């Protein structure tokens, strides 16, 4: 990390749930490189798990943000504007689908469940981009998290496959629309990592075994692996990159069935 200098950069991170979160790995990496970050938590139940991590990273603000509650996202950006008056990067690490729709066949998912999954997992990123834009007067970087199931069918990934595909497409359109303002947009696609969200996917442990056994590097990746790449993406070293889907999966995405 000493090769990446993020001194003076201000970032906002959505989606830390606990110490195993990919969002925390990214936050830890950008903080180690010198960035100052603000952090959100989902609700009061989640706050005790997130607050100590925010304190470790010396976050000047830890704020509630449930994308389904009107006004909370707007309040986050209002507070960031008061504290800093600008933003250099944002991480969107948020995804959700109702359990009934997530665990069933895609063909059986309800219209309500599909709409909720798309709203929380995809449209929230578009809303974040819209609110970040006026604070990124000197340019910036928006990151979101996808998964290989958005590119091809992954057993048990179910409804989140089409949702992640939509997120990846939204990333490209946002990159095209915001590029002239110097705002870069990327989707990061990590390999399987046992996070709280991943625990809701059936037979996820078997998927991890598959990746460890058949990826070119014969290993799983860690939240720190993802964090190191994310820190590079928000740095000046990546200023000529935008609109990318970036795999961090020990090469598993290149392998056939």
Task: Describe the 3D structure.
- There is one protein chain.
- The chain is an alpha/beta fold and 257 residues long.
- The chain has one domain (10-254): NAD(P)-binding Rossmann-like Domain (Rossmann fold), CATH 3.40.50.720.
- The protein has helices spanning 22-32, 47-56, 72-83, 99-103, 111-132, 160-178, 204-214, 223-233, and strands at 10-14, 36-41, 62-64, 89-92, 140-145, 183-190, 244-248.
- Strands 3-2-1-4-5-6-7 form a 7-stranded parallel beta sheet, with helices on both faces.
- Helix 1 links the parallel strand 1 (10-14) and strand 2 (36-41).
- The radius of gyration is 17 Å and the shape is globular.
- The relative contact order is 0.15.
Defining traits:
single chain, alpha/beta, Rossmann fold, 7-stranded parallel β-sheet, 8 helices
Report a brief summary of the structure.
The mean pLDDT is 94. This protein is of the alpha/beta class. The chain contains eight helices and seven strands; from the N terminus they run βαβαβαβααβαβααβ.
Helix-strand blueprint:
Blueprint: E1 10-14, H1 22-32, E2 36-41, H2 47-56, E3 62-64, H3 72-83, E4 89-92, H4 99-103, H5 111-132, E5 140-145, H6 160-178, E6 183-190, H7 204-214, H8 223-233, E7 244-248
Parallel strand pairs: 1-2, 1-4, 2-3, 4-5, 5-6, 6-7
Helix pairs in contact: 1-8, 5-6
């Amino acid at each position: 990390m000493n090769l990446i200098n993020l001194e003076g950069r201000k970032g906002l991170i959505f989606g830390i749930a606990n110490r195993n979160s990919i969002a925390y790995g990214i936050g830890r990496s950008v903080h180690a490189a010198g960035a100052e970050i603000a952090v959100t938590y989902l609700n009061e139940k989640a706050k005790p798990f997130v607050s100590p991590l925010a304190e470790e990273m010396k976050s000047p603000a830890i704020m509630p943000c449930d994308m389904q509650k009107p006004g909370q996202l707007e309040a986050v950006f209002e507070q960031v504007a008061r504290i800093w008056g600008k933003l250099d990067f944002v991480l969107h690490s948020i995804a959700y689908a109702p359990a009934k729709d997530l665990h069933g066949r895609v063909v059986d998912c309800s219209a309500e469940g599909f709409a909720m999954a798309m709203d929380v997992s995809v449209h929230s990123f578009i809303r974040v981009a819209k609110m970040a834009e006026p604070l990124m007067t000197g340019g910036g970087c928006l990151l979101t998290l996808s998964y290989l199931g958005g590119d091809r069918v992954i057993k048990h990934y179910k409804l989140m496959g089409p949702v992640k595909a939509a997120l990846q497409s939204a990333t490209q359109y946002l990159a095209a629309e915001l590029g002239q303002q110097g705002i870069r947009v990327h989707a990061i696609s990590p390999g399987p990592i046992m996070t709280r969200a991943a625990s809701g996917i059936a037979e996820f442990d078997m998927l991890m075994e598959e990746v460890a056994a058949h990826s070119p590097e014969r290993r799983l990746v860690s939240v720190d692996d993802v964090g190191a790449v994310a820190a590079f993406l928000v740095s000046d070293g990546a200023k000529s990159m935008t609109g990318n889907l970036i795999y961090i999966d020990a090469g598993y995405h290149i392998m056939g069935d």
